[in-house]
């Protein structure tokens, strides 16, 4: 079950065992970076906005900057909050907060993803998105 809450706070409370994660909607020259997950897990092989888990004491912005540096080897600037989605996967409930981001330095290279693509917002729906990322994708696709 996935629900875009309409709430513009970065996170909603998730039950014990839940996880707060962040996703970067990286935009360059009007195109959006899409990242394909590796095989395995409930969303294996699906597309997502890159990002990851918050570490203790981190803000959403700090987590995004760290995760993108680790996963893609580049530096971003975090901008406006797009949406927050709570989704129950079979093994975990996540609260995913997505933010528009700009590239500051470097070129994204996948280290944890199997593929990266730059797509126009109107073309985003052509990919098979992980369920938690679908509401943000729909907002961007307009």
Can you walk through the features of this model?
The protein has 2 helices and 8 strands. With 142 residues, the protein is mostly beta strands. It has one domain: Nucleoside Triphosphate Pyrophosphohydrolase, CATH 3.90.79. Strands 1, 2, 3, 4, 5, 6, 7 and 8 form an 8-stranded mixed β-sheet that branches.
Relevant terms:
Nucleoside Triphosphate Pyrophosphohydrolase, 142 residues, mainly beta, 15% helix, eight-stranded mixed beta sheet, 2 helices
Rg of Cα set: 14 Å
In N-to-C order, the SSE pattern is EEEEEHEEEH
The N- to C-terminal Cα distance equals: 22 Å
> What is the share of helical residues?
10-25%
Task: Summarize the structure in short.
By secondary structure, the protein is mostly beta strands.
Secondary structure elements and pairings:
Elements: E1 2-4, E2 19-28, E3 31-36, E4 47-48, E5 51-53, H1 60-72, E6 75-88, E7 93-105, E8 115-119, H2 134-141
Parallel strand pairs: 2-7
Antiparallel strand pairs: 1-6, 2-3, 2-5, 3-4, 3-8, 6-7
């Amino acid at each position: 079950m996935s629900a875009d809450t309409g709430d513009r706070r970065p996170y909603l409370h998730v039950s014990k065992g839940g996880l707060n994660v962040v996703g970067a909607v990286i935009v360059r020259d009007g195109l959006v970076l899409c990242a394909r997950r590796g095989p395995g897990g409930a969303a294996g092989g699906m597309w997502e906005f890159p990002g990851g888990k918050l570490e203790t004491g981190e803000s959403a912005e700090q987590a995004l900057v760290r995760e993108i540096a680790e996963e893609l080897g580049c530096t971003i600037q975090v901008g406006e909050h797009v949406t927050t989605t709570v989704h129950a996967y079979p093994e975990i409930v996540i609260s995913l907060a997505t933010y528009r981001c700009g590239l500051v330095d470097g070129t994204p290279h996948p280290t944890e993803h199997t593929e990266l693509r730059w797509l126009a917002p109107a073309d985003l729906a052509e990919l098979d998105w992980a369920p938690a990322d679908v509401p943000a994708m729909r907002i961007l696709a307009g």
